[in-house]
Design brief:
This protein is of the alpha/beta class and 235 residues long. The protein has one domain: Uracil-DNA Glycosylase, subunit E, CATH 3.40.470. It has helices at 2-49, 75-78, 107-118, 139-144, 147-164, 174-183, 187-190, 213-234, and strands at 92-96, 125-128, 168-171, 192-193. It has a four-stranded parallel sheet. α1 runs antiparallel to α5. The longest helix has 48 residues, at 2-49. The two termini are 36 Å apart.
Length: 235
């Protein structure tokens, strides 16, 4: 009986060693593929800018920072959140519209990263559908009216999806959800898409539904609670 017990223990141990090795191999491959995608997007930036003379028209790409990396933007202020940003490999994608031209982290960025930490989803993949920076007044002309750029960005995001194989895609804001339907109409058949408010929305004040930033983020928190509760119950 003792021999049998030891044999069973060894089998269980070997099973978990194989399982962990397989999971680590998958994660390693995923990280390499995300790094390759990031480089391809940066190369797209360089190639696009070769034909542009006006500095204001040049393309600048940006990715949500991994604040576990000491070399990352916002590390000193947000390292305790341990949010991985674009490097996140959890099978949930939190998707913004496009990066602003501001400095990271803004007040809203800090609230978002802290909220993700609070929800226990630090390894969630945080990204933008369009990874090109633009000032608010230039967004439509520089990005959304540029059909070639938009299709290219959709191709990049399609690759993200193929790498991560997400169980849930969470577009932030109506515009982001609309772009997903327009440029990648097939993904709704394969992936669950649940929208939330965009954390950077400035439509807050007396004439709007949400009277304060705290109230607005409380609503986002409730929306994420509903989504993550369903996700963790199934996993």
């Amino acid at each position: 009986m003792i021999i049998h017990g030891k044999s069973l223990e060894n089998k269980i141990l070997k099973f978990f060693i194989r399982k962990n090795f397989k999971e680590n191999s998958v994660l390693k491959k995923m990280n390499l593929e995300l790094d390759k995608l990031r480089e391809d997007i940066k190369n797209y930036e360089k190639e696009t800018n070769l034909d542009i003379e006006n500095e204001n028209d040049k393309v600048e790409v940006w990715f949500y920072p991994d604040v576990t990396n000491p070399q990352s933007e916002g590390y000193s202020e947000l390292k305790n959140t341990e949010v991985k940003g674009f490097s996140g490999t959890q099978d949930i994608i939190l998707l913004g519209l496009n990066p602003s031209s501001g400095t990271f982290p803004s007040f809203e960025d800090k609230l978002l990263y802290k909220l993700l930490r609070e929800k226990g989803i630090e390894n969630i993949h945080v990204s933008d559908f369009v990874k090109v920076r633009a000032k608010n007044k230039e967004v439509t002309k520089k990005l959304f009216d540029n059909e070639f750029l938009m299709k290219k960005q959709a191709e990049f995001f399609q690759r993200e999806i193929e790498i991560l194989k997400p169980k849930i895609i969470i577009p932030m804001g109506k515009k982001c959800k609309t772009l997903l339907k327009k440029y990648l109409p097939e993904i709704k058949k394969k992936y669950k898409i649940i929208g939330v408010l965009h954390y950077g929305n400035n439509h807050i004040g007396k004439k709007f539904y949400y009277k304060s930033k705290d109230e607005y983020f409380h609503k986002i928190s409730q929306q994420l609670d509903k989504i993550t509760e369903e996700y963790f119950n199934k996993n």
